[in-house]
Amino acid sequence: MGYGELKIRSYDVQTHRARVEDLERRCEVGPSKRVVLFTDTMGDPICRIRNSPVYKMLIAELGSEVVGVIQGSIKLATVHKPPKNLARLGYVLGLRIAPLHRRKGIGLELVLELEKWFIANDVDYSYMATEKDNEASVNLFVKKAWICQIQDTGDSC
């Protein structure tokens, strides 16, 4: 990477909150051909996962700069596959990489760490969602052999 050693850490509200909020402000969210969505977390970067039974937020740091973030949660869901009718589902959301640090493998490192957490917590299935025109995100998960299905058309990617 050339910028020093990348460190992946668990989010700590005291240490990382202001820097994660700054990263969120610098990252565009939403389809590139439409209005960009800004998500105001109102001072709580884990607000999207806080109500999940089990959750984790990881940050990627280069030096003292937070250059990436990812959130994951685990929930139980009913499935109709006897003998086990409950499955542990892992959800990946909120993957953000600072614009100047994209395409350097930081997103992949964050996903790998979150996958390790899912495995350690006996997750049966994991899911992620992204905009279909977010090529970097789609390519990352396809490269990791995640099954990709576009919701509005049913087309596979």
Automatic annotation (TrEMBL):
Domain N-acetyltransferase: 6-157
GO MF annotations, alphabetized: acyltransferase activity, transferring groups other than amino-acyl groups
InterPro entries: Acyl_CoA_acyltransferase, GNAT_dom, Plant_NAT
CDD domains reported for this sequence: NAT_SF
Pfam families: Acetyltransf_1
Entry protein name: ACYL-COA N-ACYLTRANSFERASES (NAT) SUPERFAMILY PROTEIN
Lineage: Eukaryota, Viridiplantae, Streptophyta, Embryophyta, Tracheophyta
